[in-house]
Each structure stands twice: as structure tokens, then as C-alpha cells.
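idk why but the lab printer keeps eating my pages so im just putting this in chat instead. protein + zinc ion:
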Amino acid sequence: MGKHTPLVQQLIDALRLLPSVGPKSAQRMAYQLLERNREGGMQLAQVLQQAMQKVGHCQQCRTFCEGQLCQICTHPVRGHSAVMCIVASAADLYAIEQTGLFAGRYFVLRGQLSPLDGIGPAELGLDQLAKQLAQGQVQEVILATNPTIEGDATAFYIAELCKKHQIQVSRLAQGMPVGGELEYVDGSTLSYAFSGRKPF
Amino acid sequence: MGKHTPLVQQLIDALRLLPSVGPKSAQRMAYQLLERNREGGMQLAQVLQQAMQKVGHCQQCRTFCEGQLCQICTHPVRGHSAVMCIVASAADLYAIEQTGLFAGRYFVLRGQLSPLDGIGPAELGLDQLAKQLAQGQVQEVILATNPTIEGDATAFYIAELCKKHQIQVSRLAQGMPVGGELEYVDGSTLSYAFSGRKPF
Ligand SMILES: [Zn+2]
Ligand SMILES: [Zn+2]
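predcted complex ->
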């Protein structure tokens, strides 16, 4: 008898798709929504559906965007900046924007090179990046990939691309904890790593 | 510029409706779903919507149920048991079922008396409970409300009701941590409290 009803069990299973949600907290979430906040549950369902369907990616920098170009790419100055910061994910872009330190443009890889997982240059939009670098507007690239094996490989690959186009390239100082992920680095460490970036 | 797009921000806000989800983890959930698992996000949206709309309550014991009566109430033996365990929530019923110790019927209050929050006897279905007790089938009531002020008040109220109908009434031994909530008590403590229950 110690079983959830089928729909409650399905809800618990679906909530476990969220990062860091184990069986016990998924159950607590399901029961709390059902018992105390069905309206909230319905609202979450609706917003989830809309976001999954309507949030796309900026055609220039590949960050999350609901139209064709994001706020930064349509900005009259930033969108044509000579300095481009290349990050692994939209979350990393957000973390850097929070520091307020950088006023150039971005390119969001949405991943890092990882041949074993089938993530190669095409998946990271590196053809698109190469085209942008070939246009001659970008004079400096700041590589902000993670200080991990995949991040190193990705940075190396892009650095070669930059050198081919005579673009100055640097990488964030490894003041970041080695093996860590940029998204979780605190703002001051990130600021330090930003200003202490080294030529590649 | 350090802003999420409107839909992403809405999604982060909606995820914070879940218990114990702060701004940082809501952002992580939103970004991860958008970047890596849109299908999972759509599935969660659909299941959420269905569960919020279709999960109702058992007409006899008030636990979560998708039909009129739950599995326990429709069970040929348990549904007519002479022993009734009264719990504050469906989560508490689930926790007791997990111990496998109890083979009677339940009544789920879906709350505890708390006049300041507007929760009185009507909200807890105590009229419905009184009718069931008046039918004469129930000979023993086990009160499993939380060891808190509200749980004490609720237990006291129901104990009076039981005495009126000459029904034997006991309450779970306070082997449970005082001030704690039944749902979070580990199985062995709960088993101990169950077998050590005292006449009320
Ligand atoms: Zn953009
Ligand atoms: Zn029932």
C-alpha cells in the first residue's frame, strides 16, 4: 500500500529531472504543491512550457534570446565592440555581466570540446565564430572557458583560430579554482581572474 | 545588460515556488533545462499540469487519490478496519506506510488546528471524521499528529471526540524529536514511537 498514486509518482519522477533534486526532495515538492499551492504548480507548468518552446538563441552570440538578436548584440556600442569574450555557457555570460567588468561582445559556445561526448567544433558554432573573426571587426579575444581539460582544449583550438586572423588573444588568469566551473566562482575571484588575464 | 530575458526570468521566478529552491538554484535549474533538456522541461510541465488538475482526495480518508476512494479505503480488510490512524498530511501517511507497521485505515487532516491561520475543525474535515466515528466501526484511534503546539491542540480536540463515542484513543509516543515533523522522522524512530504509543 506504501505507494504514491500513479500521477503523484509521475510528478515525483519528473521533478527529479531538475538538477540536484533527489527522491526525498522531489516528493516534498510534489506533496507541497498538491497540498498547498496548486495555483503555483499550474503557473510553473505554463511558464516551463512557454520557456522551453520560445527561448531561442541569439543569432550573433548564441546566448539565450527570445528574438533574433540579444540585448548585448543589438547594443549600438557593445554589439560592434572590438573585444570579444568567449564563454562556455549562457550562465557564464550572466556571471561575467554581474561583475560589470566587461563592456564588449560575447560568443557563447554552449559547451566545450569533448570528442568522447560527440561535442566537436560544429556543435560549438566554431564555423560561425570563424566567420565573425574573419570580418576584421574583432581585434581582441578573451577566452573564458573553464579551467578544465575540455576548457583547455577549447581555448587552445580558438587561440589557433585567432592567431590565424592576427587577433590578440588572452585567457582568464587561473585564479579560478582548477577543475572548477566558472558559473560557481564568486564575483571577486572572477574579477581578479578577469583583470589578471594572460596573453595566450 | 546583466539581465535574464523576460521568459528566462519568469521561469526562474516560477521555479522558486518549489520548496527550498533559492535564486541561485532556480537559475541553475532554468539554464540547465534550457541548455540540455528541453524535452525534460516539457515533460515536467505536462505532468505538473495533469497532477495539479487531476489528483484529488479520497472521499473517505482524504489522502491523495485520482478516483473517489484510495487503495487503502477500497482494500477489503483495511478499508473497514476497527483501528484508525489520524495524520496531519498525506506525506505522513506515506511515511507510516513505509514502515509497514500499520495495517488499519487512516484519516488525513491535511493540516492541524491553527486558529490564527484560519484553520479550524471544518478545514480539517472533523465533521466528516465525527460522522465516521459515530458509525461504530472504529474502536481504536491512533493520533499521529505532529509533536508541536498545533499537533497537540489537534490531538486534544480529536481525543475528546473519541471519548464521546467511547473509542479507545492513543497518541504516538513522543520518541519523535519534540518540535519536529513526522514526515522527516527516520523509519526506526517512527517505528519506536508507533509501538510505544500511550493511551490519551
Ligand atoms: Zn547576442
Ligand atoms: Zn482513502
